[in-house]
Specification:
By secondary structure, the chain is α/β, with parallel strands linked by helices. α8 packs parallel to α9. The chain has 18 helices and 23 strands.
Length: 671
């Protein structure tokens, strides 16, 4: 009996051990089954904007090629949610153009997003936006769970096209609110049949399309071959850095729905909500591009030229508070494609550039520059007056007419001329150039700042940033200063008894006629006046009036004094009361009008004026002494001393005085 009991106990113990071992093994298996799955990083395209993603914080993987300027970025360090997520990451330096993982965190909207150029991406400025985000390296933080599938505000998100698993955002139920669904609307004139299964393939290059042909040549111009593959490489590097070299850049991601006849209703109804940059206020210039549309350029080079313009438009951040840009195409004759006020942002400007068609003909650059001087920079065409005028001339090889005289007149009108010469004349070709050294004869200054020489059309894109930097450096745009907008002019008026009331009014009209010729403001030309007899009186100083109407009214109000003639003392008084307060960067012009010989010495006061850099013009009437006029006037006296026999003939000297003032200004060394 005892043996039986022991046997049963042994059996129970054995069964217990078996169950225990089996339970432990099952527990291990269960643990393996509930092990946390590996985190899957969602992928997005370069064009996905942060505002389309609802998640407040997420990790994503960006593809290569997001450095392309077509992916817009707004802000620096902190970006508007209207920005491309991946392009912002490249701009911030978190990614390079090869792509990778990033961590994105949403933050509050702000005012004053600052545009900047960084890591090959030009971000734009923006007055304000409702939401912002920041980017950092894509290392998940411990204890934080990131979504493996992003939540979008629209069921048809750009990421869906990349094959990513996405889910539509369902707005939580809130009393008294109704969620507005995003629907698809069919575009009139398209067929929806089969739209859900539309696929587009990239067209391949046919044998005929890759055959290089010489560009048509006008008589006397050179013939050069162009490699089509280099053209494709240039276009691809600008628009799609990751495109294969054997593919034309005709495929546009995201076009499936549009080409099928559908566009999101959201896009149709919210265009007014898209941010429009006011432009970069640090680059407020009025800019004209003169592009070469001659036959010698050829269609392929012309496309490269247009791409260059589009890149410039993107980099400049066009807007009413910043740079404005127009385009003139020249061949035999110039034609304005659009003026300064036609397009007020970079996006619209780039669209307009794409639509420009080549005109053909010769390369008549001089004729184009003359047209721009006369017509382009007018108020009717959007010229803002206070912004420097800049003309960038693009030339393939060399011009077929002369540019020196046309450029001189442009400079004298205040236009800063830049020249970009692409594939200039070789030593053997220089015999065909009509005007040797044409670029240096044309540009604003000959110090190299205003001219760029590009060896090949395929390296033209490398000149985008150097050119943008130069045209935006308003402190160095020397040709913005002209003989009409860069002087402090002090009139010294003889009010002695011999003049008389009637003639004194004629003198004042002469002063007004001269003043009308200048651009008057507190930053341009300023005008002051002194009247003298034995004594002197300051009628108004340089800082008193800053508009032309105010100056003309002040001249009318000057009252006739009457008395003796102390011209020497009047010169000293003007130096002390007027020109001592002149601005350092202004040319100092003294215009003295007298009708007789002075009672005091004029030689020493005149020498003092010349020594202090005051350019003196002496206008003598009736009984004025010619020898005194020549002493008072700046050397050479023949250019600075004028005499008329009677007061009624004073008006005739106005054009000559103005001409000599401008001739002297423009004769200064251009370097």
């Amino acid at each position: 009996m005892g043996i039986v009991v022991l046997t049963m106990k042994a059996s129970v113990m054995e069964m217990f051990l078996v169950l225990l071992v089996t339970g432990i093994h099952s527990n291990k298996e269960m643990t393996k089954k509930i092990k946390r799955p590996k985190f899957n990083v969602p992928q997005i395209n370069c064009d996905v904007k942060a505002g389309k993603i609802i998640n407040p914080e997420f990790v994503v993987k960006c593809p290569a090629g997001c450095q392309d300027p077509k992916y817009h970025v707004y802000g620096t360090d902190v970006y508007s949610s209207y920005s491309s997520v991946c392009a912002a990451a490249v701009h911030s330096g978190v990614l390079d153009n090869s792509g990778g993982k990033i961590l994105v965190r949403k933050v509050a909207g702000q005012s004053g997003y600052r545009g900047s150029y960084s890591n090959g991406v030009q971000s734009l400025s923006l007055p304000r936006w409702r939401e912002s985000f920041i980017v950092s390296e894509g290392k998940p933080q411990k204890g934080v769970t990131y979504p493996s599938a992003l939540t979008y505000s629209s069921p048809k998100s750009p990421a869906a096209k990349a094959g990513e698993t996405t889910k539509a955002y369902q707005k939580p139920s809130v009393p008294a609110t109704t969620a507005q669904p995003v629907t698809l609307m069919q575009v009139p004139g398209t067929t929806p049949e089969g739209a859900a299964h539309v696929t587009l393939s990239r067209p391949s290059l046919s044998a005929a399309s890759i055959t290089s042909s010489p560009r048509p040549q006008p008589v006397g111009h050179r013939s050069r071959e162009l490699d089509l593959w280099a053209t494709i490489a240039y276009t691809s590097s600008q628009n799609s850095p990751h495109a294969s070299p054997g593919e034309m850049d005709l495929w546009k991601p995201g076009s499936v729905l549009l080409d099928a006849g559908f566009v999101p209703k959201e896009e149709l109804s919210t265009q007014s909500l898209e941010p429009v940059s006011q432009g970069d206020p640090n680059c407020k210039v009025d800019l004209s591009f003169l592009i070469d549309g001659s036959t010698s350029v050829g269609k392929r080079r012309f496309r490269i030229q247009k791409q260059f313009l589009a890149d410039i438009a993107q980099a400049l951040d066009i807007g009413p508070a910043g740079p404005l840009m127009g385009v003139v195409q020249y061949g035999d004759n110039p034609a304005t494609q659009f003026n300064l006020k036609t397009h007020m942002n970079s996006r619209d400007l780039k669209t307009a550039i794409e639509k420009i068609t080549q005109r053909g003909g010769l390369s008549n650059v001089g004729r184009a520059i003359s047209s721009v001087t006369k017509n382009f920079f007018s108020k009717a065409n959007g010229n803002r007056g206070g912004a420097p005028n800049v003309a960038v001339v693009m030339v393939d090889g060399w011009p077929t007419d002369k540019v020196e005289e046309a450029s001189r007149l442009a400079r004298e009108s205040g236009i800063n001329i830049f020249f970009i010469t692409i594939e200039g004349a070789t030593e053997t070709e220089k015999q065909y150039v009509i005007e040797p050294n044409f670029a240096n004869k044309a540009v604003c200054r000959t110090n190299g700042f205003y001219s760029l020489s590009v060896q090949s059309w395929f390296s033209l894109h490398k000149s985008v940033q150097p050119l943008v930097k130069r045209v935006c450096d308003t402190e160095r745009l020397a040709c913005s200063k002209t003989c009409f907008n860069s002087a402090d002019i002090g009139f010294v008026i003889d009010g002695s008894s011999s003049v008389g009331t009637s003639n004194f009014r004629t003198v004042l009209q002469f002063v007004a006629n001269l003043s009308k010729e200048f651009e008057i403001s507190d930053t341009d030309t300023r005008v002051g006046a002194v009247q003298y007899t034995y004594e002197q009186r300051l009628e108004f100083g340089f800082e008193e009036y800053s508009t032309k109407p105010d100056i003309l009214n002040a001249i009318k109000r000057v009252g006739y004094w009457s008395g003796g003639t102390s011209t020497g003392a009047a010169i000293n008084y003007a130096l002390e009361q007027l020109f001592k307060k002149s601005k350092p960067n202004k040319r100092k012009l003294m215009i003295l009008i007298t009708d007789g010989r002075s009672y005091d010495d004029v030689r020493i006061p005149a020498m003092a004026a010349h020594h202090k850099g005051v350019i003196t013009y002496a206008i003598g009437v009736a009984w004025a002494a010619q020898d005194e006029l020549e002493v008072i006037a700046t050397h050479p006296a023949k250019d600075h001393a004028f005499f008329v026999d009677e007061f009624d003939n004073l008006y005739r000297s106005v054009p000559k005085v103005i001409q000599n003032i401008c001739t002297e200004f423009n004769s200064q060394p251009r370097n």
